[in-house]
Amino acid sequence: MTLHSIVIQKLLSTKAHLGRRVAAHHFKQFTYGTRNGMAIIDSDRTLICLRTAVEFIAALAQQKARFMFVNTNSLWDEIIEQMTKKIGCYSPSMNLLWRSGGFLTNSHSPKKFRSRRKKICFGPTQPPDCVVVFDTDRKSSVILEADRLQIPIVSLVDSAMPLECYKKITYPIPANDSVQFVYLVCNLITKTFLLHQKSTASSVAQQEDTREQVERIEEGKSVNKDELLVLPYSLLPISPGVDRTEELLDKLAVLKFNGALGTNMGFHGPKSTIQICDGLTSLDLIVNQIEALHSKYRCSVPLLLMNTTTTHEDTVKLLEKYAKSNVDIHSLKQPQHKSSGGQSGEDELYPGHGAVFLSIMKSGTLDVLLSQGKEYILMVDSDNVAATIDPKILDHLIEKKIEYCIEVVPTAYDADFSNIGSRLQKFELAEIAQSSVKHSTEKFKLVDTGSLWVNLRAIKRLLDTDTLKIEDISVSKETAAGSAIRFFDRAIGVNVPHSRSLSLNKTSDLLLLKSDLYTCDEGVLVQNIARTNPENPVIELGPEFEKVSDLLSRFKSMPDIIGLDSLKVTGDVWFGAGITLKGRVTIAAKPGMKLEIPDGVVIENKDINGPSDI
After folding, report:
1. What pLDDT is stored for residue 300 in this prediction?
2. For 40, how many CA atoms within 13 A lie in the half-sphere containing its CB?
3. CA pair distance 207, 378, nearest whole angstrom
4. pLDDT: is 204 or 589 the higher one?
5. What is the pLDDT of residues 541-597, one digit of tens each?
6. Alpha-carbon distances, residue 20 vs 36, 137, 143, 187 (angstroms)
7. How crowded is residue 206: how many other Cβ atoms within 10 Å of its Cβ?
8. Which candidate among 119, 128, 164, 275 keeps its CA 20 to 30 Å from the CA of 567?
């Protein structure tokens, strides 16, 4: 019996799969079907949502966040009381407050009120960072208040929950709220907290060793300019509140490099105009992301596009649909030179970031941004389509007065997150590969994602003093050592999740992005929650799929690759509609043979060389 089967049996024993006789339409995505008029909840979906919610709670617990556990069902009092005592969140004077719930919107000052048992309680002076609700149907008022304050909500949901309430829950857990299942959830939360407390105690000594290095960088003292201190994303402070986020975003501008052409994929035009997900291009994604921030927060984040003469005209046409957008979009032209090595003769941007800094300086854009109160600029590479505007990173940079920050990921996926991704480390710049090169795990330990945060006043200081010049920057085609990082006093790297680094260099990358593996949520690419392996499948396509037009013509529709580990296709192969690929799949058509994969087939862990192998 597999581990998955054991876990599912445990869920079934808690009666978590038993829904109600009424199943709301929006809840049907979590149901397996009906039996005797009663909705049956899919245990696999319950397991996925439960794991996601617990991972979120674990991430907050690591940052010592404040939690609010809301319960008004007396059947669960003892269970939740034991949980809060073990994890250190229990307070006899506050326990009645959590049971009576609510009062989030008035939490900025102490309040007296009477609970249901006629006892005086005092409300908290600060709102929680997360609200965990065990009986959602009874505490919809708490959900409304938490949503108004944009506090993340983890909650059990059943098949009869109204849509208005369901939409406000950040991490829903579809299940029957039986005593056994509530006990299981509380047990998982308890073990998560205890595990974090144990790991925190073991890492104290290590953090002490690296604290001096961090202080030296943040204080601007002399450090080795050929080394970079890399900070794990998990060690950043928790996400700032609404007011703080609005303040941070008003200090930010975004610059998108837009000089890359799609000629290596047979596409005539800028790479940023290729439709990658839900009919959207990478330019659409970044504009939609800023629009979503503007609608969610009262802020203004301008978007700068660094074009070349070969990409400017097509970009202007694409941006015509955003004429009435609330995003302030500016097009700039970076100094460029003719490619000496390529046969296409396309214009190339000058290497390094020095040319970018000089360009925005000479055009007057830098002075305009500073006059508008902007302090940082996020530079996004043209190849990375998964870049995210993260206020959490910006908050750390402003608080620690960091002048230069690059986002990196390990070259090899760190499955147990115990090596590079879990602790502060220093790396040689020669160990950080550019995102545009084919990196080696032996030579490089990190990869630059192409997202760069830079302090605008630091740029102006370097340019005004002639410290930063293009000719002074030694450039390597493989490493990030040739960048302008050496010229800044305070520079760090942030080891971000792999989901922040999705490149578009080949048609195999396009297949990943256009499949059901990714969806677009407010301009951010999100991996399908149904995929259990966080690492992307490895896809190799033959020369027959080299061009974008070839890829789109040879696939009648993009296959289901949620369960795919690797795919290798060579020869004259044509794919039908509704195909599902799982595990390790190799499809090789013999020379002179046209191999057609029929509609609706499921291929799992197979080597296919002809129709008889399907």
Report:
1. 93
2. 10
3. 28
4. 589
5. 999 999 999 999 999 999 999 999 999 999 999 999 999 999 999 999 998 899 999
6. 11, 13, 21, 25
7. 12
8. 275
Residue entry with tokens 């925005």: 360
> What pLDDT, on the 0 to 100 scale, is given for residue 499?
82
CA distance 367 to 12: 63
Rounded Cα distance, 122 and 103, in Å: 11
Q: Which residues contact 9 (CB under 8 A, 6 or more apart)?
A: none
Asked if residues 330 and 294 have their Cβ atoms less than 8 Å apart, the reply is: no
Say if strands 524-527 and 303-307 run parallel, antiparallel, or are unpaired: unpaired
CA torsion 297-300-306-309 (nearest 10°) is 110
C-alpha pair distances (Å), 172 with each of 48, 62, 68, 81, 516: 10, 21, 16, 22, 22
Helix (H) or strand (E) holding 61: helix 43-62
- The residues with which 427 forms a beta bridge, in sequence order, are 228
Q: How far apart are CA 163 and CA 79, in angstroms?
A: 29
Query: What structural domains and CATH numbers belong to the chain?
Result: 3-111+121-195 (3.40.50.10490), 221-337+350-500 (3.90.550.10), 507-613 (2.160.10.10)
Instruction: Give the three-class secondary structure for 495.
Output: strand
Contact, 381 vs 286, CB < 8 A?
Answer: no
Per-residue pLDDT of 314-372, as tens digits, reads 888 888 898 888 899 988 776 554 444 443 434 343 344 556 776 777 678 888 999 99
CA distance 213 to 164: 49
Spatial separation of the C-alpha atoms in residues 426 and 223, rounded to whole Å: 11
Can you tell me the distance from the alpha carbon of 570 to that of 541, in angstroms, rounded to the nearest whole number? 6
Contact 234, 437 (CB under 8 A): no
Q: In whole angstroms, what is the distance from residue 147 CA to residue 168 CA?
A: 6
- Stated pTM of the model: 0.64
Please tell me whether residue 403 adopts helix, strand or coil conformation: coil
Q: pLDDT per residue over 500-540, tens digit each?
A: 888 888 999 999 999 999 988 888 898 888 888 888 899 99
**Whole-number percent of the chain with pLDDT over 70:** 75
3 state SS for 134-200: CCCCCCHHHHHHHHHCCCCEEEEECCCCCHHHHCCCCEEEECCCCHHHHHHHHHHHHHHHHHHHHHH
Structure confidence at residue 429 as a pLDDT band (50, 70, 90): confident
Report residue 463 as tokens.
Answer: 């340019």
